[in-house]
Write the structure tokens for this entry.
Amino acid sequence: MEGTDPVNKKLAAALSGGAVLVVAATGCSSGGDKGPDPKLVSWAKTVCDAVPAQSTKIKSANASIAAIATDSNLPPKSAQQTYVEAFQDLADGYKTLANALDTAGAPPGVDGGAKLQQDASKNLAGLSTSYAELKKKVDGLDTKDQGKFAKGLKEVAIQTKEVGKQGDNGTQALKRLEQGDVKEAMAEQPSCKVAASAAGQPTGQATGQATTG
């Protein structure tokens, strides 16, 4: 009968590259003396104020799943509960970030800003839906049979890998949005600076791919 430990490691690995966060690239600017449009600064505040709490929630959820990978003695029921809670937090976190972009609307004065904003929001909302589906799938696994549970987790790991690719697309959408004046306006927001600092990197990508400024 196959244990869940190898599967847990696959799940943790699949999640490690799939998260994206809306956090400004602090320390980067366009070099202009004038600074960004006040309306754009107000837009950036609407987006950035939603970031720190959701950044923490997403980071904690990924950490919980990573921790399971090192615990080979965790009972199926406990593993299931951890996955369910983590996937729910991921779904909620990305949904809140998508809602923040929807509330902010198109960044003022930015060419093609509406499409950039909509693409980023759509990707974050899609991630939220995908994690909600993963949560539902794990919630329905049979924890009384170790073999069945391990087999079910294997399928979840495969799906999680696909969500990781979806997350990469989301990262690219956010990078396209966070350029030029938008990047500068977001960099002025204390909430975005806090989230970027907490992430330990200059940009808001949990994938570890930094944008240079």
Residues 17-31, 200-213 have pLDDT under 50 and may be disordered.
